[in-house]
Write a structure and sequence with these properties.
The chain is α+β, with helices and mostly antiparallel strands. The chain has two helices and 15 strands.
Length: 246
């Protein structure tokens, strides 16, 4: 009787072993064979991809990735993530991205992401209202770094590009200066009286003249010789003198 009970207990022990313990070990082994692609991994990969393909210096751009899915469970094997820019060749602003996920060369998933790329850009801004015809001085402008989703073209990038130049229209305070809104100030203005200077073989001949157009330093300008009534071209060497070469 005692031996029989011993075999009965052994029988139930083996049953419990197969029913409870072995399935637990099987589940653990199966879990180890899977791999998880996390949301963080997906976003980080997209950010790295954009920074590598875009033409900006990496420390000048800010990338924000948008992905509304969940972590992805993949089968075991070598994982390969292929990111591509979709919808054109945008370099800044909203850039859609496609992600193809492969394991051991077999496509598992294809998902879409969105991104916003901002670029740091150096610009010159006004510090007060500038009236048309005013000459820019250091107190009128400041240099700023901005982050933008749209690269501004034809902007003034250094203070030197604006200092001493003239505003061609009224420009509000805090405005980002553009090259087309400035011009080099004229050294002489149309209607100004000047001295026409002709140097030839060591001789100097002078005559009174009137500028027929605005003139700039060392640039050719049209001038009327008051004595001969002829219009000629000379180089404006200062606000009072036009030098003519023959």
């Amino acid at each position: 009787m005692i031996i029989r009970n011993k075999y009965i207990r052994l029988f139930w022990f083996i049953i419990i072993l197969y029913v409870v313990i072995i399935p637990i070990n099987t589940v653990k082994a199966s879990a180890k064979e899977q791999q998880t692609l996390t949301i963080r991994d997906i976003k980080k990969g997209a950010e790295t991809y954009l920074k590598n393909i875009l033409p900006w210096e990496k420390d000048l751009i800010e990338v924000e990735i948008f992905y509304h899915g969940r972590d992805i469970v993949l089968p075991p094997g070598k994982r390969n993530l292929k990111y591509t820019r979709s919808g054109g060749n945008q370099k800044v602003g909203r850039i859609p991205i496609a992600l193809q996920i492969k394991v051991n060369g077999i496509i598992q998933r294809q998902i879409g992401l969105n991104s916003i790329v901002r670029v740091s850009q150096q610009v010159v801004k006004t510090t007060r209202l500038i009236r048309k015809g005013e000459i820019f001085t250091k107190k009128d402008i400041s240099l700023e770094n901005i982050k933008t989703e749209r690269v501004l073209k034809n902007t003034i990038k250094t203070l030197e590009e604006a200092l001493g130049y003239e505003a061609i229209r009224n420009i509000p305070n805090g405005y980002t200066l553009l090259q087309r809104e400035l011009k080099k100030p004229a050294l002489g203005n149309k209607g100004d009286k000047v001295l026409i200077l002709v140097e030839k073989r060591g001789m100097k001949i002078t005559a009174p003249g009137i500028l027929k157009e605005d003139g700039y330093a060392n640039a050719l300008v049209k001038v009327l010789n008051i004595e001969s009534k002829k219009t000629i071209y000379g180089r404006l060497i200062n606000s009072d003198t036009v030098k003519v070469s023959f």
